[in-house]
Amino acid sequence: MSEKRARRAKIHVHAVQHMDGAHDTMEQHAAGMLLETPDGFRVTYTHKDGGISTRTTVQTIGKDRVLVTRSGGVRSAMHFEAGTVHKTAYETPYGVIALAIRTESVENRLTPAGGTLRFSYTLEFPSQPAIHHHMTLTVRPSEKEETTGENDVETGQRD
């Protein structure tokens, strides 16, 4: 069996959130890595969130499940699966926020050469209005065709 190789990639995140009749759009561009895993694909990138560096790992599991973990200034582990609700804690520098994630849809079109991942979900906070999100992650190979081993990408596993 051949070893899977991580590829350097350009990551574009486009997010739209709707709350109380208003909407806000967020765009991020980052350099990152794309790795094919036995279950799907793993995309990792680091970005600034309010001046604080945050590392994001997006792991697809099949075509309809997505795990998003963040570490750094904001820490979270969010699970998205169409038609389900998952409860989680979102750690910020100001404290921990309990929330429920109600996922409406997941559209996974990632391949070893890149692609898109779209998901729509609602964040539900205690005693607060719900916030509806549409997220699109676009992954394109970097111009540098350089590849690297899986150990160069945060995997959560140690050899």
The poorly predicted ranges are 146-159
- As a whole number of angstroms, the C-alpha radius of gyration is 16 Å
Helix content: under 10%
Major sheet size, sense and barrel closure: 10 strands, antiparallel, barrel
Write down the secondary-structure element order. EEEEEEEEEEE
CATH topology: Lipocalin
CATH superfamily, by name, is: Calycin beta-barrel core domain
Structural class: mainly beta
Rounded mean pLDDT score: 85
Provide a descriptive summary of the structure in words.
There is one protein chain. By secondary structure, the protein is mostly beta strands. The protein has one domain (6-143): Beta Barrel (Lipocalin). The chain has strands spanning 6-19, 22-36, 41-49, 52-61, 65-72, 75-81, 85-92, 95-111, 114-124, 131-141, 147-148. A hairpin with a 2-residue loop joins strand 1 and strand 2 (22-36). The two termini are 17 Å apart. The model is unreliable at 146-159 (pLDDT under 50).
Structure, briefly:
A ten-stranded antiparallel beta barrel has the order 1-2-3-4-5-6-7-8-9-10. With 159 residues, the chain is mostly beta strands.
Chain-wise SSE layout:
Blueprint: E1 6-19, E2 22-36, E3 41-49, E4 52-61, E5 65-72, E6 75-81, E7 85-92, E8 95-111, E9 114-124, E10 131-141, E11 147-148
Antiparallel strand pairs: 1-2, 1-10, 1-11, 2-3, 3-4, 4-5, 5-6, 6-7, 7-8, 8-9, 9-10
